[in-house]
Amino acid sequence: MTEKQEVKLQLLKEFANIEKPETVDFCRKAYEFLAENETTPQPQAGTVVAADQEPDGIYLVLDGGRHVLFTGDNNADDCAACIGIGVKWGSKSVMVALNDEADSKEITLTANKDTTNYGGYINTYLDAVADWNGKANTEHLKEIGLNGEITLPDGWYIPSLGELYFVFLNCRTINKALAFVGGTEIADDWYWTSTECSAPYAWFLILNNGYANNYTTKASDTYRVRAVSAFIS
């Protein structure tokens, strides 16, 4: 039984009297009123959304783990406290860093060639697009020897190809939020993903047309890096 159904039942118990038709009519009108207002109101700018009530959309993620829906009219305190831009769509969500790594320079993904005995390579496009394991992928890149210019705070990692596609699909609004809080917009450029194709190669994605390729050498080719983190787990 929903909360409003319980309210309706309570109305009936408290106010209805079969010997007084006017009381039954009152309850009927109360039922109709509640039924007409059963839609969940959308949060206003600056409203902190409870963990079980987030609608799909773009969020300002604030210091301390709070998040507010981005409307383009959020207050200055939200901008000052913002540590990342959250994106939620259905069961998928991710938080995007406010700036590229290495001051937006194009850099190699690793400092060394991969000599590990790794079983996580993905060399087919459909499997790579479905990869949502950026955090685990990044741990392997650290094992190889992540480029020292990529400085990832605790909890942040290089997105997988699937995660970066998710960012790409929402890039226009993400960039509006980034500009709003003083971050650096995601460029129409080539970005590394943490999805590896083989010992020498990893996947990249071009953020202006969604083109992905896996024939890029981790230790010598240079692209941008934008870190992400978990959001609404």
Order of helices and strands: HHEEHEEHHEHHEEEE
Strand content: 15-25%
Query: Largest sheet, if any?
Result: 6 strands, antiparallel
Low-confidence stretches: 37-46
Chain oligomer state: single chain
Mean pLDDT score, rounded? 87
Summarize the topology.
Elements (H helix, E strand, L loop, with lengths): L2 H13 L5 H16 L20 E6 L4 E3 L6 H6 E8 L2 E5 L28 H5 L4 H11 L11 E2 L3 H9 L1 H11 L8 E7 L4 E6 L5 E6 L10 E2 L4
Antiparallel strand pairs: 1-2, 1-3, 3-4, 4-9, 5-9, 6-7, 7-8
Helix pairs in contact: 1-2
Give an account of the 3D structure.
- This protein has 233 residues and is of the alpha+beta class.
- It is built from 7 helices and 9 strands; from the N terminus they run H-H-E-E-H-E-E-H-H-E-H-H-E-E-E-E.
- Strands 2-1-3-4-9-5 form a 6-stranded antiparallel beta sheet. A 3-stranded antiparallel beta sheet has the order 6-7-8.
- Strand 6 (190-196) and strand 7 (201-206) form a beta hairpin.
- Helix 1 packs antiparallel against helix 2 (21-36).
- The longest helix has 16 residues, at 21-36.
- The two termini are 27 Å apart.
- Mean pLDDT is 87; it is low at 37-46.
Top keywords for this entry?
30% helix, three-stranded antiparallel β-sheet, alpha+beta, 233 residues, elongated, 9 strands, six-stranded antiparallel β-sheet
Structure at a glance:
By secondary structure, the chain is α+β, with helices and mostly antiparallel strands. The chain has helices at residues 3-15, 21-36, 76-81, 125-129, 134-144, 161-169, 171-181, and strands at 57-62, 67-69, 82-89, 92-96, 156-157, 190-196, 201-206, 212-217, 228-229. The strands form two sheets. A six-stranded antiparallel sheet has the order 2-1-3-4-9-5.
